[in-house]
């Protein structure tokens, strides 16, 4: 039986149809990617599956005792707990068994010959082992470390975390619950490349259940999913294979449909011309017969016109010099905290530089150094002549919350008529009354589009982009990629979107704990070099291992896997007793 079966589900909001006769099923080991434009109904469909939306037409059937892990916008975290404490709640039952065992051990110190206590301890230990023993602490460490939390981060309270960090805590909790089905709404949001790769590996090699994910991360979809579910015009269509296979199949479908539609339209035109010329003449019966057949003809649907997407075209107003940026031995510190060091690079006109690295390694700080918002702690940062910087802020700042969309444009182009402003904003998908929406009421995607419209109006010859694809759906990302590929000036862009980096960047700045590496090549070339380096290193280690006799090791005991075993026994028992009494 399927984990979930969806049969002819429809959903409307205030007479606006969002889902129409949607049907599909989720099997035990499925890896499904749910894609579609923003507002197409993806999250609505997920919330129907998880039982948060009850009013709909159709039927959803779930397997008995189905355990679902759902990553949504409503994270439900306790602000007063630390990161580790919050995630530890997943293993409440194992902790209860820990406490029971320690309580029994405490009693046995006073009554060492009590057979009943010994038997009860043995039974509790068996249950403890059957539920993974002390493995849960290692699982927590691996999940939090993989998702980018350092040991110090794990001691922070939830209320002190950023929105992105809270999202990662919720993701860790859901993964550690090991459900039968994972429903993930944009799981790679707020993940750097290293954390995204960890999640890919977890889903591909560790997690054995089914996955349905909403994602605009095309690289992630390519590496994880085996079927693509596309929501389009309120209906769902299923494509086998990953995202690249979906694109190939869809393009072939569109070409075939266009060819068959054109062929049928030509046939209909010939038949209608015959009917027109002969309906009242000697061939009246033939004309009537053809008209009847034409009326019964199953018409091929006209190919859908291309989706509306942003129409972007960046045009530098002035040409800058050939040297854009010169950095030598640059470092930056805030107080005693060193953000990065050892940065050396030369950027020239026309370069597209991808800036990547873990969160918190100084990427945004570097862009602010270029803009002159900060000064380097050591080293030299020199920018070229006649440069006009355009800056996209990942926090989506730089917009007046009390202005309307149309006012934002008028503040830059005060002489434009309302018609000219409307035509301009329509290229960024703001139409009708949407141009009068207040900035404070805009969604993340709408803010991103409005900020990009401001960049275009400023006519920069150097673009500094900090996570420009956040909040954009796939169609909008493709439009931005096309515009940047035609851009004749210089781009420095921070991004965790590997697909985006692969298409655009010809040089890389890689920020890491050990310093900053400048790589003159594409992201694909960098990946290949990294893989070859790892392979060569592994081979070298293996060769050395063959010539060195391994030292004898003491056998690992069960106690050594117990994270509590580093504490003296009596102290551990007293802690356990105190914890048990506090319940």
Describe the structure.
This protein has 583 residues and is α/β, with parallel strands linked by helices. It has 18 helices and 18 strands. Among the domains are: 49 residues; 138 residues, Rossmann fold (3-Layer(aba) Sandwich). The longest helix has 36 residues. The protein is globular and about 115 Å long.
Q: Can you describe this structure in just a few lines?
A:
The chain is an alpha/beta fold and 583 residues long.
Task: Classify the secondary structure makeup into a structural class.
Answer: alpha/beta
Radius of gyration over all CA atoms, rounded: 30 Å
Please name the CATH architecture of one domain: 3-Layer(aba) Sandwich
In whole angstroms, the N-to-C terminal distance is 41 Å
Shape: globular
């Amino acid at each position: 039986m399927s984990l979930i079966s969806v049969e002819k589900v429809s959903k409307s909001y205030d007479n606006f149809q969002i889902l129409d006769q949607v049907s599909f099923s989720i099997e035990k080991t499925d890896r499904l990617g749910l894609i579609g434009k923003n507002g197409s109904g993806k999250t609505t469909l997920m919330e129907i599956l998880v039982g948060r939306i009850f009013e709909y037409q159709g039927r959803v059937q779930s397997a008995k005792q189905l355990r679902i892990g759902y990553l949504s916008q409503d994270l439900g975290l306790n602000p007063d707990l630390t990161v580790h404490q919050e995630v530890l709640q997943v293993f409440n039952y194992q902790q209860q068994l820990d406490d029971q065992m320690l309580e029994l051990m405490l009693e046995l110190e006073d009554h060492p010959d009590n057979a009943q206590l010994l038997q009860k301890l043995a039974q509790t230990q068996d249950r403890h082992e059957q539920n993974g023993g002390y493995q849960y602490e290692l699982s927590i460490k691996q999940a939090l470390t993989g998702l980018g939390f350092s040991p110090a981060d794990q001691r922070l309270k939830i209320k002190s975390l950023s929105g992105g960090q809270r999202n990662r805590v919720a993701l860790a909790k859901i993964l550690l619950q090991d459900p039968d089905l994972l429903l993930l709404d944009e799981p790679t949001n707020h993940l750097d490349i290293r954390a995204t790769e960890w999640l890919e590996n977890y889903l591909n090699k560790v997690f054995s259940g089914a996955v349905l994910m909403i994602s605009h991360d095309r690289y992630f979809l390519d590496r994880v999913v085996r079927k693509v579910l596309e929501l389009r015009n309120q209906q769902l269509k299923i494509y086998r294979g990953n995202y690249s296979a979906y694109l190939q199949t869809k393009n072939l479908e569109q070409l075939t449909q266009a060819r068959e539609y054109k062929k049928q339209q030509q046939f209909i035109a010939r038949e209608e011309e015959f009917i027109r010329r002969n309906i009242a003449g000697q061939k009246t019966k033939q004309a009537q017969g053809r008209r009847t057949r034409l009326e019964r003809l199953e018409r091929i649907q006209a190919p859908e016109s291309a989706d509306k997407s942003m129409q972007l075209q960046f045009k530098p107003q002035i040409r800058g010099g050939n040297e854009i940026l010169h950095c030598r031995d640059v470092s930056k510190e805030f107080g005693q905290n060193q953000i990065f060091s050892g940065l050396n690079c030369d950027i020239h006109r026309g370069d597209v530089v991808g800036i990547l690295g873990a969160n918190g390694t100084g990427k945004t700080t570097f862009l602010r150094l270029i803009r002159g918002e900060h000064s380097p702690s050591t080293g030299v940062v020199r920018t070229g002549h006649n440069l006009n910087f355009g800056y996209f802020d990942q926090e989506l700042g730089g917009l007046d919350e009390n202005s309307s969309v149309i006012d934002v444009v008028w503040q830059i182009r005060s002489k434009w008529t309302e018609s000219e402003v409307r035509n301009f904003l329509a290229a960024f998908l703001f139409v009708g009354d949407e141009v009068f929406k207040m900035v404070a009421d805009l969604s993340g995607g709408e803010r991103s589009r409005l900020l990009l419209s401001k960049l275009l109006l400023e006519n920069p010859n150097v673009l500094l982009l900090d996570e420009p694809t956040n909040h954009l759906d796939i169609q909008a990302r493709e439009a931005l990629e096309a515009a940047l590929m035609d851009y004749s000036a210089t781009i420095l862009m921070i991004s965790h979107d590997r697909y985006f980096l692969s298409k655009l960047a010809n040089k890389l700045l890689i920020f890491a704990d050990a310093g900053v590496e400048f790589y003159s090549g594409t992201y694909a070339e960098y990946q290949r070099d990294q893989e070859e380096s790892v392979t060569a290193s592994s081979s070298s280690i293996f060769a050395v291992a063959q010539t060195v006799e391994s030292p004898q090791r003491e056998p690992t005991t069960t106690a050594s896997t117990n994270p509590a075993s580093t504490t003296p026994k009596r102290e551990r028992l007293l802690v356990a007793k105190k914890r048990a009494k506090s319940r």
